[in-house]
Amino acid sequence: xxxxxxxxxxxxxxxxxxxxxxxxxxxxxxxxxxxxxxxxxxxxxxxxxxxxxxxxxxxxxxxxxxxxxxxxxxxxxxxxxxxxxxxxxxxxxxxxxxxxxxxxxxxxxxxxxxxxxxxxxxxxxxxxxxxxxxxxxxxxxxxxxxxxxxxxxxxxxxxxxxxxxxxxxxxxxxxxxxxxxxxxxxxxxxxxxxxxxxxxxxxxxxxxxxxxxxxxxxxxxxxxxxxxxxxxxxxxxxxxxxxxxxxxxxxxxxxxxxxxxxxxxxxxxxxxxxxxxxxxxxxxxxxxxxxxxxxxxxxxxxxxxxxxxxxxxxxxxxxxxxxxxxxxxxxxxxxxxxxxxxxxxxxxxxxxxxxxxxxxxxxxxxxxxxxxxxxxxxxxxxxxxxxxxxxxxxxxxxxxxxxxxxxxxxxxxxxxxxxxxxxxxxxxxxxxxxxx
Length: 436
Known about the structure:
The chain is mainly β. It is 8% helix and 34% strand. Strands 2, 22, 23, 24, 25 and 26 form a six-stranded antiparallel beta sheet that branches. The protein is globular and about 55 Å long. The two termini are 37 Å apart.
């Protein structure tokens, strides 16, 4: 155990006793997985369970462990906190090297969270740039890299529509002109629309995806708190997916009550928009499962008043029972505290048959569960446009035997050859998954 973790645990113990605040899981992660997860009563804890996998990085030559029938190699290494990926039509890969903007913790909870983030490798300065990676000879390793855009503000999502590259900064959706093959963009950005980013900007990542016809953009905006503990006035247009007109910047809330949506993708057969969502913390190690769900115009998913439909979170006051009655039950639970972030449907032919017609999901890993959950890439099979069956592991081994994080998977995309690319923000590497 590191000095930082010892100090954090010592503070928690002094404030109320570790037994009064830590909660060990009574159910396996699988119990909180699938279309009908087990949702036990909330655990009564004085302070949140803090169980961190300290970031140590990969030793030379080490890689994640691929599932049978797969190989993994480093597509690009030595990056600076790579979080999100986008593949351009010519095969170039864009990487958002980014992190939250620095802020001073306010209060005990914020201080503890800051220590957790530092221990987990999530407190590094933000590079605030988008790097272009090019594998010109097609050998699965990017031999060329260049800074496509810099001086951004915690950039995350990227989307090319025609000759316009949209970038979701933490505070605004912006647009740049793009010419195929260029390795640097020097043009000034055009602001499309401001995005909610008021202090403390708790969930800072903003993702963007275009509708299949390119006529609309969808932007994720996470909540500004765990359960609106700072007041609902700090949550205006947050915990939502916004629908934006690319040219005019006119927008509306598309779906709400989504605590922290991140990855989005359109199902290749049905055309439905799907997202993965991080649910609330501090209800114990078995609650609340993150989830994968389709989203439609006007749907409300419960946050902060309830979770998984009408399961009311008694910590939230005042309640709004009329909204809880409307809360949509998510399609598929992904396990409590797995921090599921990346999402990519797979309809290519390169990977083995069992990985087709389903969704790859990057699980960044827990801090609020004992034992750890997530820290891997999984595949959820689909049938007739809906998730069916149990998820299977694709990449594991991100946590070593000592409980340290060698890496943490985030964004996931399918490259121009049909291979899977995975951004690892602790290992500072983009991993590429191909058939064995």
